[in-house]
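Feature request disguised as a bug: please show the residue count (778) next to Outer membrane beta-barrel protein in the output. Example input:
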Amino acid sequence: MRLWGHLSNGAAFTAIALAFTLPAQAQVADSADEDVSETSQPQTSSQIVVQADIGFRNRSEGAEPVLVYDEDYFQRFEPLTAGDALKRVPSVTFLSDVIESDGPRLRGLDPGYTQILINGERVPGPNPDRSFFLDRIPAELIEQVEIVRSSSARRTGDAVAGTINIKLRDALALDGGYIKGGGILFDDGELKPTLGLYYGGALGPGRVLVGANLQGRYNPKEKLSLRYSNDGENQPVFDNREDQSDIRDGTDYAFNGSYILESDTTTVEFSGNYVRTDRAETERSFEYNVISGTPGPVESEDDNNPGLLTDAHQLEDIDQENWAFAAKLAHEWSLGKTTFKANLARFDDNVDSTETELAFDTEEGDDPEWESKLTAQHNDDQELSFALDHEIPVSMDINFVVGGFLQDKDRDTNIAETKQKGGLDNRDWDQFTDSPVDLIGSFDDPEAEDLSSISEKRRDLYALFEGDHGVVSWEAGVRWESTRTRITDLIENAVVENDYDHFLPSASLKYDIGMGRFTLSGARTVRRPQFDYLTPAVLVEEIGDNDFQGNPLLLPEKAWGADFGYEHHLGRTGVIGVNVFYRKVEDLVELATVFDEDGVPVPGQEGGIVLQPQNVGSGEVYGIEFDLSADLGFIGLPNTGVFGNLSVLDSSVEDVFGERRFNDQSDLVYNFGVIQNLPKVGVAFGATYRKQGSAFGRVLTEEVTTTYGADLEIFVEKRVGDSFTIRAVGSNLLDGKKKEAFNKFDSIEDQVVRAFDEYELESERAGPVFQLVGRYAF
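Example output, currently without the count:
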């Protein structure tokens, strides 16, 4: 298998790391039992602003396999978003556009397989696969990131690949205040601001934290597409070239707050966060019938006459708001500890898209023609949840925990469209306009058409035992999840209800041995169907020439999983670890042909056939993960920190065309870096290098292979006294490109026999990005 072909790299990584770092265990042998993930006092603003020490990956002391990264692990490379921060942790890949990090793919799997939590709670997002884009969370709000490799009965079971928990700063995290200001310079000369203000301290009987962040967002992408058609003998023949500029320009506004009251037995906390994205995505593309050069509009249909085929413009105006409010009460009394949590979260997504195309390759004698379409789409997703659990001491070292979870989710989608079209009475394009949008007039107000309304009610119960016996700690429990879904398709005027429930057992064991520890975990998890698969409407020619029909009776995918790992303490703060994992996924959702009662494929409305997502088949996911975080004190370099991780990933699933990986799973991802502190002069500098392997995806009528260039980031900082730090950061310094190769087919039959319709090569770049940021504590 491909996985084992990479194991030599992992073995070499481990051997080198052990050779350099194992002697460090003698430095602070008596610190092995410290829980470095816990802090008893809030950090002062000066500690956050002026990092005197290098941040390392922490060890979690619970039985679950959890990797813990505090903010000081990420901050020096000035990540803009939570997604950017996660580029330095194991097994997280992205299929995002270049210099963007939105949907995390833990273990390389589709974002829908990863559970994203904010402060331990699920949050809604705009994506139909239920995933949440982490580029919506400014990195400045983060206190800690937890990578939870296996599941627990404590959390909802939507975590086939694992869980990423983003802990925002709360009222116990900061004492004092600081301001942040700076600028971000992009490859085309655009300068964007980054501003922040944060304060934490005592207020009345409790503590308060407030924070505000303004983040300029920009991405000046350049794309090149080369398309080839089939010459009739399955050989590629050049068809056309597309040059495209794609500029994403916007601003993110973020606010968060927390108020905590504590006594010897009771803790009360109120928290909230709000993120707004105001963004415009402008694309301008020119399609030519030559592989190089920029000739003017075509004058005839003569294939030997070079020219501009189309001039297109697209503008997406994006306005998104994401907010959440939570309340928590924890009370210890004679019968144990009771915790109650309430959470209300909402995501509003409004996208107005205008697409205008001017076509010059019309029939001989006709004037150029243009067409423009305005599409307004709105998604409204709201979740209300309550959780209650009670922890009862059974003995000195064993607890029993029982709890429940209730969630009501409502998601409404509507869309509106209107069109214009016309022609030119002259082929001299330059006399008319600089852009196709200058041709269109005012659109008529489109009437909003409600597409669907989805209501999902969850009722969960769970129970678990947990024990801590010194060198051995463990947890074992079961969660029962019951879901009732009601889908209203307002186009088809149809209402469909679907109920399902499942038991999700889980268990984890940690065994300490000397300076190391073994962890073993197993769990049953699920992935609920994505929303656009549930609505029963039929979309004509949605997949090539084939129609798409939703399936409201889809069941969740279910998986059995196991993780087995070992990690070793290196001095006081260092850690080296290795982990192997396996997932067996059942009831896999794949697109399948719809047959009538006689076993004949149902024909599409405009040709082709009807395809529908169905629970068919199964798949396996497996891999090995290495990570290292330590200083070089054992060779006399305590102010030098080294970091690195390598994840070798593989999977297997059968579709109608044979065996493949899970779609778009990279075969490996690694990064390594170094940070050097110079305490006497108040200077630090460092670099990190990251590379993600290729990914292959196959759906009906299309296949794509994606590769990424390497990413190099460098920072230099100067500390002034105890209150001020200025930091310069360069990212994407190797100008890494994203490249995609598409195989496209007219039908499933053509895909089976490899009769290509079109072959396309696409690449995009955005150039290096430079930041200059200062922080001042008060």
